[in-house]
Amino acid sequence: MLAEVLSIGNEVISGRILDTNAHWLSQRLEELGYRVRFHAAVGDDLDDLVEAFRRAAGRVDLVVASGGLGPTEDDLTRDALAAAFGLPLEINTEALDQIRALFARRQRAMPPRNELQARFPRGARAVRNPNGTAPGIELDVLRPGLSPLPNEGGSDALSGLPADRERCRIICLPGVPAEIVEMWNDSVARRLMEHNASGLRIVHKQIKCFGAGESQIEAMLPEGFVRQTDPRVGINASATTIIFRISAQAPTEEECRAKIAPAVETLYARLGELVFGEDDDELETVVCRLLAERRQTVGVIDCGSGGLVGERLAAVAGAAGGFRGSCAPATADALAHIAECFGLAANLTGTIASRGAAGSSDSPGPSAVAAALAETARLLWNSDWGLAVSPLPPEGPSASPPRPFAVAAADENGVKVKELPYAGHPAWLRAWISKQTLNTLRLALLRR
Amino acid sequence: MLAEVLSIGNEVISGRILDTNAHWLSQRLEELGYRVRFHAAVGDDLDDLVEAFRRAAGRVDLVVASGGLGPTEDDLTRDALAAAFGLPLEINTEALDQIRALFARRQRAMPPRNELQARFPRGARAVRNPNGTAPGIELDVLRPGLSPLPNEGGSDALSGLPADRERCRIICLPGVPAEIVEMWNDSVARRLMEHNASGLRIVHKQIKCFGAGESQIEAMLPEGFVRQTDPRVGINASATTIIFRISAQAPTEEECRAKIAPAVETLYARLGELVFGEDDDELETVVCRLLAERRQTVGVIDCGSGGLVGERLAAVAGAAGGFRGSCAPATADALAHIAECFGLAANLTGTIASRGAAGSSDSPGPSAVAAALAETARLLWNSDWGLAVSPLPPEGPSASPPRPFAVAAADENGVKVKELPYAGHPAWLRAWISKQTLNTLRLALLRR
User: Fold this and answer.
1) Interface touch A38/B42, C-beta < 8 Å
2) Which of A72, A234, B395, B437 is the most buried (most CB within 10 A)?
3) ipTM of the complex
4) In sequence order, what are the residues at sequence separation of 6 or more whose Cβ sits closer than 8 angstroms to the Cβ of residue B297?
5) For A283-447, CATH number?
6) What is the mean pLDDT, run by run of 10 residues, along chain A of 448 residues?
7) CATH domain A2-197 topology
8) Which chain B residues contact residue A26 at CB under 8 A?
């Protein structure tokens, strides 16, 4: 079935805000098996809105709109729906009850204006908004001539209507992203599953990888694995993390999971340690989980990502137990001063010298420096693990040929170092360095 | 004049990528005085594209499209333009020369496929793409019947055409955001200024504020100041920074600046130190600039933003000279260990105790702690300035009533402390803490 995502509001078309709703809704709709064919955005203008609704209803099976449901004069979604499909506006008691209940829960009197938010086109159903004053609107319209459907008498009558080529369903949600997410999880996803798949369940799973590029990872998989349709498998990259999204549709949740399982097994089998987690996992959450399981701690000396490694660890809820802190000197001079203050200078210099000597070069390479910094980080933070990023090469990421830097993780049993070229897309470079560092600790933890 | 922004590509409508191009282009178009009335996005489907171009050309004066200009089979923008407006595709020699020149500059042979990228609808003009293989396409079409304009014989003929209600201009750019920015600055903005304003110049200025909310700041300004139209003044908030955008249109740049100047003066006069910078300034760039002017350095101890204060300072190009580094202990225990290692514990405890005693409470408050940390940061980093965030209250940002934390900046002349409630929107909380910290240093620097 085809879908269109419609964004409503002057702030969207004028560029005052970035329209993340259309992006998020498209992802969710595709997961539910809809093919999103159009995005459209219009301002708070009645004529434009009416035309946008009529055009959308004429060319897809489902329209999901966001915005324009507030109580003020520039909120025109309700009026536009009524005008587009020739329906009178009337108080929807279900919607009014929801609005009143929300104000009652907040122990506030309901301003008379908010009653406007319950004026729905006749035949529309209310979509519960758990934490906002604007209930959503669900309306089925006939397609070709765009004449209204008879009033089916409430939300229960709805589930009996099969989706067909003659009808278009329109769902209008508020513009606030957080409310859209809540409403989606509360009831919209379920309603749409029924609409699209006659009661079929849909289950999704994400498998997340780090350490290789999208095409390199795809090449490790069986021919046709990505973009298979049952289960559906998609792959995309987000700031150097590679994410597989696997979705299955079946009568029961168990059958969905049974369809997903072989694809997940294939990913783990073929990609091995490139897979670092599932669903909401990030590298830092995985690292903190591994540390918590082992009742261990980590401290950081970061001369490369400007402190981003520590910031990611600090952001994990409950990380405090495992994460001791981060020290991010901005210059070689500042690093030397810190080491001196701590009485660590001799240790650091000695380690660098001995490691440098083991290599073939005269001056210590980034690997020797990173290793010594990781060992120093254990002392500095009094932690089980020391994690470090060596200073970045002075030439910058676009130097040719790229010069290396290194990341290292040390515990009492030794140190694991990874040398990397300082090169890459400027927008992702710091994120990539911080992820390489966290991933080095993850792999070291897995092997202890 | 009215404009529509059209995004082309399956990756946009399916939600695989977030469409930042439409957002960026809308902002630029509004700055040039266009009113953006619609956004639309379609996939790589010829029929959908043809319809989207025809519809857009029928309802606005300018269409700016992005995507679909590559050399592969799913790049259909050229074919769609030709089909939508009944124009034959033919090699545009200007475009072909640009493509050949790019490959020559890269010392690579041009693959035969890339010649496709010079197949333009008859009458179209090439838009230079300084660093990409896909030249943009500029095409003027007649509106009502959508019949093609006569071939005007090249780009020079263009500037003579006045914009009118009978014509729509279509500009097609590649999908790569960086190339769009380069092409915009290279020639598109200039072409559109001519198109929209018969040679009027447009000048923009941004004034950036921190330290108060959007409505609070607006209330400090004269009635009607925001949303005035000559010059145009807009206000918006971006992660707790408040940004005024002032745009003027006039025959010369001097006249534009003359129109803008009084509005800028009003902002500085009414908002005082709430204004921290202009245009591309961020708090960290301003702080680094002030430090550089004074040949001073700063070091950080950050128990509140997880290291974000230091990360922002480290991200400023050329900051290395003024920024010494950041130490971000995640726990009180780790902070104590660090202080002990450095032989700073006595100093820290003493300072906290003396400051705590000066206050009315028994245990030292966050202000005493922040002040002591800022003084300790100077020693730790051997820097002129010490900047610190006290540990956050254990209750979390949604506690009622909110408990305070504090930020402080110290130099040899003393310490400036600011106590703040630990409360606010979770999405911006860390950013807000880091900005409060940088702003405290900014204000302290201004007073030395």
Assistant:
1) yes
2) B437
3) 0.71
4) B291, B321, B322, B323, B324, B381, B383, B384, B385
5) 3.90.950.20
6) 94 87 92 89 95 95 95 89 96 95 84 91 95 92 60 38 71 92 91 76 87 87 85 80 87 92 97 95 96 96 94 82 92 84 68 55 80 92 96 84 94 96 82 96 94
7) Molybdenum Cofactor Biosythetic Enzyme; Chain A (3.40.980)
8) 13-15
